[in-house]
Design brief:
By secondary structure, the chain is α/β, with parallel strands linked by helices. It is built from 10 helices and 7 strands. Helix content is 50%, strand content 12%. The longest helix is centred in the N-terminal third of the chain and has 19 residues. The chain starts with a strand and ends in a 6-residue tail after the last helix.
Length: 234
């Protein structure tokens, strides 16, 4: 029986990419036009941002928990969240979640392990790059990581919140990200995590000197595999 996927969304562009990936790649597993049933809910982004900027991860968890209740009530069998930053509240949410979740960084870490990467560069919001979401999951599988220097983190954060989440993708920002990836390569990274779910809309493999780990699509593909019962990570 194909499972029903619940999406706990935060910002629109990343959530839309995750949803589209599930729907467009579903036919490869299930047949023409077919994909699992999907229910998505999101609280207004301003509510998330107030809690994130205040460092109130309990407040973030309450918003995520409210969303997961709604998708569970709609019939979802498990949940995913196509937003890396708010995974900092993940452990608070799963304590009382009515359905299981996939963790975006665990899916990225599993793929990095499969490809034998040893040290990943992490790109994302300032809150993500400086937080524990990836460091803890990568350490659990023996993979190192690096984040850009402070000045680059600030500029990346500004591009994400001033441009990417608003659906603005410019050549100048693409060039900036590519330059940061060059620096990560020169510092010893052998792959880079696109750890804001909007970054894959700006940066493709052709824009990067390092292999990219697209957190958005990796999460969507893991959800697809779980839904159809082919994932070894259930």
């Amino acid at each position: 029986m194909i499972q029903h996927i619940g999406i706990v969304a935060c910002s629109a562009e990343g959530a839309a990419l995750c949803y589209r990936t599930i729907c467009t790649e579903g036919p490869a597993l299930l047949g023409r036009y077919a994909h699992p049933e999907v229910t998505m809910h999101t609280a207004p982004l301003d509510k998330y941002m107030r809690s994130i900027e205040a460092g109130d991860w309990g407040g973030v968890a309450k918003l995520m928990s409210s969303s997961v209740l709604k998708v569970a009530e709609a019939g979802a069998d498990f949940a995913i969240c196509p937003d890396n930053t708010i995974h900092q509240a993940f452990d608070l949410v799963i304590e009382e979640s009515p359905i299981p979740w996939l963790h975006i960084a665990e899916e990225v870490a599993a793929e990095a392990k499969r490809r034998n990467y040893r040290r990943l560069g992490i790109l994302g919001s300032r809150f993500l790059m400086e937080g524990p979401v990836y460091s803890s999951r990568l350490a659990a599988v023996g993979i190192g990581h690096m984040i850009p220097e402070a000045e680059y983190r600030e500029r990346i954060n500004a591009i994400i919140f001033d441009e990417l989440i608003c659906g603005l993708f410019t050549p100048e920002s693409r060039s900036y990200f590519s330059g940061v990836i060059n620096r990560l390569r020169d510092s010893g990274c052998d792959a880079v995590v696109l750890g804001c779910t909007e970054i894959p809309l700006l940066i493709t493999q052709g824009d990067s000197v390092l292999p990219v780990l697209d957190s958005t699509r990796l999460l969507a593909r893991a959800a697809l595999k779980r839904a159809v019962g082919t994932s070894s990570r259930q």
